[in-house]
Amino acid sequence: MRYAEVRAAAARGDEAAAAVPGRTNPAWSAVDQASCGSRGLAAAAALDRCRGSWSARLGQLGTDVQQHADRLRASANEYEAADAASARGIGRVGADL
Amino acid sequence: MVTYAELRSLDPQAWLDAGQQWLDLAVAALRVAEDVHEQVAAPLGSAWPDTVGRYAAAQIDVTSDGVLIASLECRAAGYVCRGLGHVLTVCRHLADSAARSAAASGLAISDDGVVGEDPRQRVPGRADEVQTRIADLQTLVDQAVSSATRADGTAREQLDRLADQTTVTDVVAAENDDLGAASRAEVDMLDGLVPHGAAADNTRWWAALSEEDRRLLMLSSAGTLDTVAGLPDDVRAALRGSDKFDRSATARWAADHWNDTSDDPFDDNCTNFASNSLAGGGLAENSDFWLGTLSDDSWSKGGQTGNSWIDSKDYSHSASWAQAATFYDYMLDHGATDVGTAAARPGDIVMWEGTDGVHHAAVVTSVVDGDIRYTQHTGEQLNASLQGREPLTEDGAATTDGWGAQKIHVLRINPDW
Predict the structure, then answer these.
(1) What pLDDT score does A70 carry?
(2) 3-state DSSP call for residue B363?
(3) Residue B288: its pLDDT value, please?
(4) pLDDT tens digits along A21-49
(5) Chain B residues with CB-CB distance to A12 below 8 A
(6) Per-residue pLDDT for B384 more than 50?
(7) Which chain B residues touch A7 with a CB distance below 8 Å?
């Protein structure tokens, strides 16, 4: 594993997670305006339900992307630590010989 | 049911704004999906090439696909909201026009949309004239209310469906089933505005529309609008075009036959369908006297036996009839112009050019807010959104069918024969 490149991918994952849309209420202001202000339309309630489903889904996707980034970083750290430990072990074996 | 009073108090712009917000979310989600795939998953191929790294990249791509699907579903919701917004806007104009006419005639319209004499004033004119005015206005009010009610029902059905699609994991299903249904629904809602009553009623309906409403419908619903009796001649001429065939009839033929594969003898019938649609709009075949369909200078179908094995042989159709690249070259050599996507109108032919040249054709059957809706065969699609499917033809399709980045051409056919 090339740790630096994996950490760079993780950093880009952080940015992507932050950029997942629809995780804040302002992102839905016009949708909320239409669903709340359309008395008499059957579509208004359906729009509200659709907004609820997809804001939750987008929120989950943002969390998933962030978890991927965190796991990449953790993997890079663990691989690096394991490789360093191996190198130290091999070095000790070499010195003993 | 939407009542007349509700129609006059609704804010159609709120639905147009909501539609735009969904579309903005779709664009932002698409960007994230691309970033996650290209900048997070893809670099792991070289940076972390072992089995665990490959597994990690695959898992990240599952999430990237999830964001891509969310983008498609948000776009679908955007089309539904925008379609309802457009319909409500037009219906509101009709209702307002009816209210103005009623006031000018000493008539009144109740909250539930019943036109009658205003008891507060004397209605001028003979009794039979007054009754005729009442009946005319009642028709206009009924058209507005019924169109708004139908569109509200369609939008509710579509949004309810989309609310339940958060577990979809197949990008192609999201594209074809969900986005496809929403794209069709938007055009259906707009088509539903077009009345099919008596010519005089239709003339009054057209007169009550704003210029913007008319432009919208001439692009979104040309095939339907063209069948309406009582429209001004210049409108009908503009819908049909000044060429040697009827563009709106081409769009209508394509929409009417979108899932009729009875005349599809080839493995891939996209260009054959585009040619059949043009013929359905009245475009005459151009067949070389001596060589017929075998000539490079023919656009013709030749005699059909009804036997698909025989009819699928090249001699039964000219190459320009059934092969995309040849059709493209032939039509450009014979008067067509590539007008570009921004100028597309129903009855034009949209063509895709990939790394291997022009390879696909479809018929423009509608244009909504600049987004081309096309109808095609193999695989069959009705009023599919070019804009909505663009990311997949550029990226998704590049990985599945190898066509690579697509260049879009819009041919306005203008035959020189």
Answers:
(1) 98
(2) strand
(3) 76
(4) 998 888 999 999 999 988 889 999 999 99
(5) 35, 39-40
(6) yes
(7) none
CA B50 to chain centre: 47
Q: Are B386 and B372 in contact (CB under 8 A)?
A: yes
The helix/strand/coil state of B30 is helix
Nearest CA in chain A to B161: A50
pLDDT tens-digit readout, B160-205? 999 999 999 999 899 989 999 999 999 999 999 999 999 999 999 9
Percent of the residues in chain B that have a pLDDT greater than 90, as a whole number: 80
* B271, burial (CB in 10 Å: exposed 0-12, middle 13-18, buried 19+): buried
Report the residue of chain B nearest A38, measured CA to CA. B10
Give the pLDDT mean for B9-18. 96
- Residue B331's Cα: distance from chain center in Å? 23
Q: Is the pLDDT of residue B404 over 60?
A: no
Strand partners, B171: none
- 3-state SS, one letter per residue, for chain A: CCHHHHHHHHHHHHHHHHHCCCCCHHHHHHHHHHHHCCCCCHHHHHHHHHHHHHHHHHHHHHHHHHHHHHHHHHHHHHHHHHHHHHHHHHHHHHHHC
Name the least confident of B54-58, B310-314, B354-358: B310-314
Tell the residue number behind the tokens 């007008």, with chain if given.
B339
The alpha carbon of residue A72 is apart from the nearest alpha carbon of chain B, in Å, by: 8
| Backbone φ and ψ of B210, nearest 5° | -80, 165
**Cα pseudo-dihedral B74, B397, B169, B156, rounded to 10:** 30
B341, pLDDT greater than 70: yes
d(CA B37, CA B57): 9
For A22, nearest residue in chain B (alpha carbons): B25
d(Cα B289, Cα A92) in Å, to the nearest integer?
91
Nearest to B185 by CA among B45, B41, B309, B87: B87
CB B291 within 8 A of CB B298: yes
In A, which residues are within 8 Å of B47 by CB distance? Answer: 1-2, 5-6, 9
ipTM score assigned to the predicted complex: 0.93
B74 in reach of chain A (CB within 8 A): yes
Token pair 């041919």 in the structure block, residue: B411
User: Measured between CA atoms, how close is B88 to chain A, in angstroms?
Assistant: 11
Asked if B398 has any chain A CB less than 8 Å from its own CB, the reply is no
Give me the amino acid identity at B225: L
